[in-house]
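Re: [ENG-882] Designed sequences occasionally contain unexpected residues at chain ends

Forwarding the minimal case from QA. Structure tokens:
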């Protein structure tokens, strides 16, 4: 979903999402663990650990392929 939001492929209000260099999103401040583990903060932490070439994939299939390779490699080590 963040890939689609980042590439403006879905009509979602993303005014609360702030990007930095390297296509990273700032994690919103959370007072509770419940909010910190909700969709956006959790997804942003995963998004931010991805390499830039995966984040910049032009299509959803290319993004999914990059994710599969990234996590398959990560599981090996």
């Amino acid at each position: 979903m963040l890939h689609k939001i980042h590439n403006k492929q879905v009509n979602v209000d993303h005014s609360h999402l702030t990007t930095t260099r390297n296509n990273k999103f700032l994690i919103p401040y959370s007072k509770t663990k419940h909010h910190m583990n909700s969709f956006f903060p959790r997804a942003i932490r995963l998004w931010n650990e991805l390499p830039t070439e995966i984040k910049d994939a032009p299509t959803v299939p290319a993004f999914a392929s990059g994710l599969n390779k990234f996590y398959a490699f990560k599981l090996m080590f």
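QA comment: On inspection the terminal residues look reasonable. The CA atoms of residues 53 and 61 lie 14 Å apart. Proposing we downgrade this to a documentation issue.
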